[in-house]
Amino acid sequence: MSELRPLATIALADVEALLDAAFGTDRHQRTAYRVRVGLQPIGALSLAWVEGDRLTGCIQCWPVQLNSDDGHAVPMVMVGPVAVAPDRQGTGIGQQLMAASIAAAGDDAPLMLIGDPEYYGRFGFDAARTGGWRMPGPYEQRRLLARGAVPECSGMMGPRVTLAA
Asked: Are the C-beta atoms of 112 and 62 separated by less than 8 Å?
């Protein structure tokens, strides 16, 4: 039996093993990891796909912001990684995780990710408004995608900063 669960209910070692299997042990060198350094995933949007006792897929979402060149911070959610066990890829698990996470965020939520436009386009992600965005490391501009209420402006992506009251 398969079920969708909050990712926080899954042992961190199991999540890390799945991410290593899906993306390799060098995945921490990717630019996306630089953007979300020091952050914790957003619990309500980060999900696990479990088959029996086995974690076969997961999605994480992160609180990030676009630090616009005009000095404004625009809060967003960074989607990813979306990981599926290599032997279960192509079975729709990733699609179900994406759909559930987007539904939990809300249709107009400001979401962004780094990924294949050919895959993520089916979920409404595109690069139409991200041409002026920058990342703190190497990336392909065509793979910087967004959907929902995101601005068309220039700026640098980074972790969301919340000020203590």
From this structure: no
